[in-house]
Amino acid sequence: MLTALALWMALCAGAFAQVRNATVTYTYLGVQLRGYRVGEEFMIPLDRIIELGWSANSSSIGSKIVAEGKTYQVPTRQVDGHTCVALRELIQKMDGISSWIPGGYDALEVVSAITSVSVRSGAVAINAGLKVKPTVSLMGSNDPKVVIDLEGARLAPGIQLELDSTAKVSQYRPNNVRIILDLPFTPVLPQKQLANAQSFNLNFNSPERLIQNPTKSDPPKVNSTKPDPAPPIIVEGEVSVAKRNEDEIATELFVTVPKPGWKGIATVRRPARDIVEVAIPTIQAKLSDIEKDLSKHIRSVQLRQDTGLTVLSFKLTGRMGAVLEPSSEGFKLTIVHPTGSGSLKGKVIVIDAGHGGKFPGTGNGPYTEKVLSLATAKAVQKALEAEGAQVIMTRDSDKNFRDSLADDLVYRADLANRNSADIFLSFHYDDAGSTPPSGTKSIYHGGRDTDKYLAECIQEFIKSEGPLPNLGAVNDRKFARDSGFSVLRNAKMPAILMECAFVRNPNDRKVILTDQFRDGIAKCVVKGLKLFFGQK
Ligand SMILES: [Zn+2]
């Protein structure tokens, strides 16, 4: 109580601290909620905390929160007319890990800490502070191993491990803990997808095979006097960085990690416009001496240990794109430099309203894709022309260019090529079966780093001020595995295809016929292009 009061007073003392809109992402639930950043704390309105399945009961001294089966007392505060609770304090009490993504994004990430794992003869008990999302699968065909992935999880610094020789536990990805069992008998997997939970008892060697325990009441008997521990796979050694190629547009770096034995997957983080971080799970490494003048685009390189991770951090001379690919020794990191000063004046930009004429695209009635894409393309045209760009429209009426769809698509990219355009933008609307998500994404052609950076630039503004949720920059090979999208592949300049919204999502349908929505997309495109062309 004393701590709660002291913190509450600290928050009151900070009443003059700036209040900013902020978002929190619960990686284990895959949900994002909005709230307020006050100093280092995240204040979340009580009515939103209910969306997490938690309940709240407030009084003059704070709020009683019932979350994941336990009751917590946390301070409350009025922010922007809402009664809010201090979320980070609550998360910490729940053995969760919360961190502000650095760089002024005001985005808080929450993951669960795995506090204990025990494995004996195929009986597995896992405890975590917050819920995690589990999946169980088999790896390999002869004597398959059981793989248990816990999404939205990190190994707690003081994790209790009681493992027999069949088990290995690792921080497989930044937010994913992996347990691998190499059992001396044939395991049978559960028929059903497991529910998110904070405690699991799984048995791969019993008639039931698998018991999921959503409460912490019944951990399996583990003989702790004769443990046979296998620690998490941690590879020690040096991380080195070397330059392989550099031209006006991009710098290619090779990052080498200690081998053998390291099998994780590294990910790129962008905490700020001028910082690229590579998060590498399960290594414990030092940074080797780095050549002087590695690149004129890189101010410094540092290595630090985060919770369960080694983080290689590059401070750049300005905002740049970054693409990470695995290589035999580690990774290839490509840093894409913008060329220009952020001005769109005189830039030749081809805007393609997707579909048209006999190719209507998805949807129907006023929600027909060819109608929506043309209206959006015109809004973007207006906004770009206001910036002094030279815009060429592939179409400004309802028509197709060729009789076959394949030829029609080639015509559109060719128009951009013939005009030596600086940028090609194609506008579309999406459909995704009966339960489509809500949001906007930018698709780039796989393997083209500059195009990926362009997509990221635009999505950055979709994320912060777009009319619908940000669905990210997406590789076109996710949709067309072998060839990607024709319009993107055939365009010789940086090109992206925007799926502005989902025509069958009820949330998206409410807004996509409005000028406000199209202008919102256009504003993000303009800001994203300026960023791409080097705006500081
Ligand atoms: Zn389309």
Please provide a brief summary of the model.
The protein is α+β, with helices and mostly antiparallel strands. It is 19% helix and 42% strand.
Question: Which helices and strands occur, and which strands form pairs?
Answer:
Layout: H1 2-13, E1 19-26, E2 31-38, E3 41-45, H2 46-49, E4 55-59, E5 62-67, E6 70-74, E7 76-79, E8 82-86, H3 87-93, E9 96-100, E10 107-120, E11 123-139, E12 145-151, E13 153-163, E14 167-173, E15 176-181, E16 197-203, E17 210-211, E18 235-246, E19 250-256, E20 267-272, E21 275-281, E22 283-287, E23 298-306, E24 309-316, E25 321-327, E26 330-336, E27 348-353, H4 369-386, E28 390-393, H5 405-418, E29 423-430, E30 440-444, H6 449-465, E31 470-475, H7 486-490, E32 495-502, H8 506-511, H9 515-532
Parallel strand pairs: 1-10, 10-13, 18-22, 27-28, 27-29, 29-32, 30-31
Antiparallel strand pairs: 1-2, 2-3, 3-8, 4-5, 5-6, 7-8, 9-10, 10-11, 11-12, 11-16, 12-15, 14-15, 16-17, 18-19, 19-26, 20-21, 21-24, 23-24, 25-26, 30-32
Helix pairs in contact: 4-9, 6-9
The structure holds zinc ion.
Zinc ion is lined by residues 354-355, 361, 369, 428.
Could you please describe the fold and organization of this structure?
The chain is an alpha+beta fold and 536 residues long. The chain folds into 4 domains: 2-94, no CATH class; 119-203, Immunoglobulin-like, CATH 2.60.40; 235-327, no CATH class; 348-532, Zn-dependent exopeptidases (Aminopeptidase), CATH 3.40.630. It has 9 helices and 32 strands. Strands 1, 2, 3, 7, 8, 9, 10, 11, 12, 13, 14, 15, 16 and 17 form a 14-stranded mixed β-sheet that branches. Helix 4 (369-386) crosses helix 9. The longest helix has 18 residues, at 369-386. The two termini are 47 Å apart. Mean pLDDT is 83; it is low at 1-15 and 207-232. The structure holds zinc ion. Zinc ion binds next to loops.
